[in-house]
Amino acid sequence: MPDSMGPNPGPVPGDAPVIAGAAVDEPTGGPVDGEARSMFRLGLEVFVQNRLAVVGAGVIVFFLLFCFVGPLIYHTDQVHTNLMLSNGAPGGAHPFGTDASGYDELGRLMYGGQASLEVGLAAAVLASVVGTLYGAIAGYLGGWVDSVMMRLVDGGFAIPPLFLLLVLSAIFHPNRWEMIVIIAALSWLGAARLVRGEALSLRVREYVQAVRVMGGSSMRAVLKHVAPNAIGTVVVFASFAVADAILLLAFLGYLGLGLQPPQTDWGGMLSDAINYINSGYWWLLYPPGIAIILVAISFNFLGDALRDAFEVRLRGR
Amino acid sequence: MIGFLIRRVLQAIVVLFVVSVITFILLHMLPGGEARAVLGVKATPVQIAAFNHTNGLDKSLPVQYVEWLGQVLQGHLGYSYHLNQTVASLIAEKLPKTIVLNAIALIISVGLAIPIGIRQAVKRNKAFDYAATGLSFIFYSSPIFFLALVLVLWFSLDLGWLPSEAPQSGSVVGILSQPTELVLPVLTLVLAQIALFSRYMRSSFMDGLVQDYVRTAKAKGASDLRVQYLHILRNSLIPMATLIGLSLPGILGGALIVEQVFNYPGMGLLFWQEAQVNDYPVLLGVTLIGGAATVVGNLIADVLYGVLDPRVRY
Questions:
Q1: B314 falls within a domain
Q2: Looking at residue A96, what DSSP letter applies?
Q3: Residues whose CB falls within 8 Å of the CB of residue B25, separated by 6 or more in sequence, listed in order
Q4: Are B190 and B139 in contact (CB under 8 A)?
């Protein structure tokens, strides 16, 4: 079980740096393990010891509650515009003020956050699943299939994602579901590269060889043995991917290519704020911006801590 | 080394080929095709058929791809119907400006990230390290346009110290002669990049600190500064070279946003403006150039890795 992580994929150019971003950290110094305790338990301990990760998890839970439960308690009208209330400063009935259409800014923050979080999480999950399967198949099969599949990934990596995102959304004018697919289509490459590295080392393991000897199909080996054993890498990737997806969506919203009104997301709210930046309506700018940063940081913290928790080699150092 | 070089160049060519295929496929995903984009929504089917025929768009896709690739290889990236100019001439006009902006930002951010990362690694888990780590997490997780907007709000609107618009001059020299107008765009890029670079510098320097050669140098009586800046620094710069090569797509994306926010007349702004009017030849030409730049950047980074580190054997 401890070797399920395998060695890191090695110095494949473009490996962790692109995905993991700022997050390279030294071990948090986990406890010296007794054999009796499960790896899950050990991982959990390393995770909890990382205070930043606990804070990050707390912030994420807070925003999930804020966006999805909040509107049940704090009722606002996010459909009908009311120009009588437009651009009101914070205070009184509207603690965060109102925007140009007269929507309550606090309620808007909850409503926009639903889209940001939904799209961010769904895109990250979709990208992780697709990337994992792709990488596992490429690494497991090896040879020329692997070469062809990975050159495709290299090609995808070479195109600046923001450019591609702009072209795709200009072409499709995506709704929420298409947005998830487009963002996932830009983010799965990292997972594919990481899992492929793992699969290369997993395919020669005895338990994978045993499947082959027993007559199990390649499909079974990939789905039941190679992909599940790369789960640590994938989970770490996924948490960074959520942060990236939320930023990508915000970017689209900011450029006005995101969800169409009355729908919005945090990026779209920022886009509205720009029109009034000269008027000094700061309450339109800071709340969505800070919400994006807090959620993105939290998922980055989470990814960092998860990597430490899964990183078996670091244990007991 | 020669063998590696040849293999690596061949690989880069294959990746470039893949990039061109992806770009080409995008071109053909356009709703209604290029004819619809050029002739407008009122074009009759007859007109569209005629346009397709004169431009060779009624041939099979592989044939079209080969013809298109032949054109691209000769430097013909297409024609912008919106700006009435060839894409190649547009890019030749805008690219130097984008390079200038990014080169300035890159030099400053790397120049700052190296000493910050070193200090963080040496004084690990002290106040400075925590502060720098915290800031780098914040900047790394900020949407770059939010960063830009906050800077504009503070430094141009509230304090009135700096102009909120980038230099509008048509030439690179003209742009460089307006340094105050360059401050905010460059600052935005630097803040966004420094987070990533200092973080890597920190971890790469930390790896260096525990190496045997450091102990040897110290045992021979070398001062801390000498060991840090002469021995470790040179080794920890190697991963930085690779990182910069790999960050090119991100840097180009950041430049797109910064150019859009500050109205800086480079490739990013061009791309953004033409995206508004579905000027596909420009979008695809710029995407292709961006992809090619990344492939070449990665190639240089890989080769540099071998040159900088004689221990690397291929």
A1: no
A2: T
A3: none
A4: no
Mean pLDDT of B290-313: 77
- The residue among B70, B87, B104 that closes a domain is B87
Spatial contact of B213 and B169, defined as CB atoms under 8 Å apart: no
Boundary of a domain, candidates B87, B112, B146: B87
Could you tell me which chain A residue has the CA closest to the CA of B204?
Answer: A24
CA-CA-CA-CA torsion for B254, B205, B108, A271, nearest 10 degrees? 30
Number of domains in chain B: 2
B174 and B291 share one domain: yes
Pair A134, A188: CB distance under 8 Å = yes
Q: Of A121, A109, A66, give the one whose Cα is nearest residue A265.
A: A109
Among residues A230, A200, A199, A195, which one has the least CA distance to residue A16? Answer: A195
Give the ipTM. Answer: 0.77
Q: pLDDT band at A28, cuts 50/70/90?
A: very low
Shared-domain flag, residues B174 and B57: no
User: Higher-confidence residue: B166 or A266?
Assistant: A266
Sequence-distant (≥ 6) Cβ neighbours of residue A56 within 8 angstroms: A297, A298, A299, A300, A301, A302, A305
Q: Where do the H-state alpha helices sit in B210-228? A: 212-219, 224-226
Residue A6 confidence (pLDDT): 36
Token couple for A243: 């942060």
Domain that holds residue B165: 88-308
Write out pLDDT tens, residues A37-88: 566 677 677 666 777 778 888 888 888 887 777 777 777 766 666 666 666 6
CB–CB of B93/B80 below 8 Å? no
- Which of B17, B141, B250 lies nearest to residue A296, judging by beta carbons? B141
- Cβ contacts of B16 on chain A, cutoff 8 Å: 158
**Least CA distance to B312: which residue of chain A?**
A11
Asked whether the predicted pLDDT for residue B235 surpasses 60, the reply is yes
Closest CA to A25 of A315, A255, A301: A301
What confidence tier does A126 reach under pLDDT thresholds 50, 70, 90?
very high
* Whether residue B211 sits in one domain with residue B72: no
Smallest CA–CA distance from B149 into chain A, residue:
A274
Which chain A residues are within 8 Å of B31, Cβ to Cβ? Answer: 171
List the CATH number of the domain containing B202.
Answer: 1.10.3720.10
pLDDT tens sequence across A247-285: 888 888 887 777 776 777 887 888 777 777 776 677 777
